Amino acid sequence: MRPKILLPVFLLSFSFAGTTGKLSGLVTEANSNTILMGCNILINDTDLGTASNTEGEYFLLNIPPGVYSIRFQMIGYETLIINDVKISVDRTTKLDANLAVEAIEGSAITVIAERNLIEFDVTQSESRITAEELESMPVAEVADILRLQGGITQDAGGGLHMRGGRSNEIAYMVDGVPMTDSYNGGISVQIENDNLQELQVISGTFNAEYGKALTGIINMVTKDGGNNFEGSLNFYSGDHTTSDTIFSDLDSYSIDNDYSISGNVSGPIIPGLITFYSSGRINRSSGWLNGLHTFTMYGDTIFQDYNNNDYRDNNEPVNNRSYQSLNWYDNWSTQNKITFRLRPTTRLKINTIFNSGTSQGYDHFRQMSQDGRNKNYDTGAFLGMNLSHSFSPLSFIDLYVTEYTRTFQSYLFADPMDARYKTPDSLYWAHIDGTLPEHIINEYGAGVNYFPQYTLSRWGVDINRFKRETINRSVKMDATSQVNKYNLIKFGFDFTNYKLSLDTYALLDSSQADQIFSPIIPEIGSFNRSTYEFNPQEISFYIQDKIEYGDMIINVGLRYEIFDPKAKIPTNIHEPYIYDPRNPALDTLSLEELENIQWGDISYIDEDSLGNPQSHSYAEYYERFNDQPNLAMKKGWWKNTRKKSQLSPRLAVAYPISDRGVIHFAYGYFYKIPDLSMLYNNTEYKLTESGTNFGIFGNPDLKPETTISYELGLRQEVASNTLLELKGFYRDARNYVSSGIPIDLGDGKNYYTFVNKDYSNSRGVILSFYKRFSNYLGWNIDYTYQVAEGSNSNPNEEFGAVLSGKEPSRSIIPLDWDQTHNLNGSIQFGYKGWGANTIFQYGSGYPYTPFITNYEQQGEVLSNVLIRNSRRKPTTFRIDLKLFKQIQLSGMQGKLYMNIYNLLDKRNMIIVYGDTGQTDETIEKARAEIISPFEPLRPNSIYQYYNRPDWYDEPREIQVGFQLSW
Known about the structure:
The protein is mainly β. The chain has a 22-stranded antiparallel beta barrel. A 5-stranded mixed β-sheet has the order 3-2-5-6-9, with no helix packed on it. Among the domains are: about 20-110, Sandwich (Immunoglobulin-like); about 125-220, Beta Complex (Ferric Hydroxamate Uptake Protein, Chain A, domain 1); about 570-640, no CATH class. The longest helix is centred in the C-terminal third of the chain and has 9 residues, at about 925-930. Helix content is about 5%, strand content about 50%.
């Protein structure tokens, strides 16, 4: 009989580029293999669907990641339902269907989809973690997941480095929207693990739709509301505990020291028209670095001294010292989405994310005087409005307008005029002018060593204040079309307007000689305060084609980017500071005259050696520098920076070598504008009369950093449910930001700016084995061999060498995050609701710079610094474990679990002393114990001074939690 063609359903879910997948296949009759035209393909519990074409083929685009049930339905044939079909971001899932002629009216056949172990359309290195996998892993934050990926290393400060690149070379995407903090890298808003539907990590090379990155993309797709009400609650608490004496006050366990409370709820507001998803989290950690609270910020003691003397006769209790956390944080976050179905083919989504955090970083030398340390306040806010329209089941467009704001502040008291900033003359340990109080002289004598060597701070009020804010406003469009069975075309643009502001200063003392610090705020524009506001703009265009020709997959694309710094730089580099010119003759000109100066036309008169008047042009004064060509022809103190543009070609190919194996090759040029802090910080060029080397000053005219990446890979199914993957990569990075050569100011003074001159090179091999979970067991292991070399590890390194009298970089050396060998793995076990997941990580030592210390009889110390990063730190090893039991509670799903981080309580050294290559020993400590074993006014021991718990990895942490879902 002639089948009746049902109207295809193509209500497509809202999406962004890089947040949805594709389903395609062939529909045939089971007995004759005749192609079937007009078969309806529907995704159950959604409004997604399409129909097979005249060749029996179907294509369904714009499917959010997840696991679905697919229905094939056609009059005259039995309905076929295929369950457990997995859709992934940016991937094509092939699903063919053979329909049997209907024997009984209304009959249906249900089968379980067999998931391919190999995705044949993957053309670059990537890994994916689904929401279900996240639930079973012993990880608390997104960063914990990233550290487990092959080719990613972590530096001593916690920064993540992908494929040997710097930590600011990774782009973060949330629901397809760029979320990278343009000021200094990292993610601008906090995304909680419970909100993730899928996490995609793309390493090395990536398609043209992705930009503003050099080494990789972290693509996070968050959950949406559906047609059913769902929700979950998650709570855990715990503490660090160890018997290791390196750490203070961790020999006991308090289950409420660290805790997290999170929850989410989703569902329909008006069924079929409006849905929502809402979540929130509160989490606090007391940290693991503690100090004995000994002094107030003014130096008053709150306990007895070493001689058991009461420091004050004021009835204060004695022996009331207590340990306090020195690296704590307190955060909360929320995410809310609401989706409107405006028309059958048009949807609008509004997404908001907000997070706020307060923290305090560890300061080793302030561990006994804790009250006067600054706190850090970090907030992020995102608002996105997104419109998705489907022209047909094969073409759709996404348009969205977004704004995110990242604000970071650091201060002690919110009010800069807070009375607590006023330091009284009643300082127990010292007068403001440094003279000894009478009670100190009476007790210890006038000749006592008041500031003994190896002493931790006894007082201090941090008077520094810092605030910076980054606002990104963007308009973005992505269009996707399956133009024929072979070509999936995607193109779009992205326009971003940045607003970057900064205000930082140290409070000044308005007092005269009364020894009482009375704060005042320095004026804007003064030497003691740095402020700015800039509004650069960036626009990019891209086009890419995913060619699926038979078994071969080709991704080819182009990306074009333009960046406008919208700033000015000095026309005459030897006169950067307009408010205080170095040439005395310019002092006679007004500010307006300086701004419009004609360097060759305007002249000034001075006297020669005999006292006779003589005339000069301003340009003559600078001819001695020999690097200002045609200065006499130039006009104006400032000149505009140039726009930067670049074209990035991308190519990637995947070709199956069998039904169980595929090889891929990828290549591309990648560009990224340096962090905006390097462009704009200190661009007032304030130069004081004192000093000889000034800087480093920002440079708004920096060029984009450039990377060329290559990759070759193989994926092979070697046994049932077992996959082998082998990848080799090579990347060449140029135009890295560094400090430039000194710019002569005359009179022996120089200043430095950031320039593009550093270089790096990395190459490596990643070998992975993956066993899909089956028969109660799953596991994966990956080994990375990697070499990361370059001229400098960070933009400030060369300037630091100049200040310390060292030579600038003249050779390629291992970078700070160069970890030659890295081994990561996990083992998952599950049986009748019980489960365990173990993660282990091994890493060879990172490089460090050794030095040899020689001592002379007079006590002079001579340090011989050897070649930078020429020695290796000790290896590291860590095991994390999650145990859980699933339970049923009145129709709801519950889970009891325990997380144990650093299960073996391994003492991993992160930073080491250069003379020993160890964290727990230095020759300096042995020397100090000989020359200064005891000082009456030193409140700490030599051991406390040199013991650095902050140079180790975290000790063991145990968390206990409960999760409830419905």
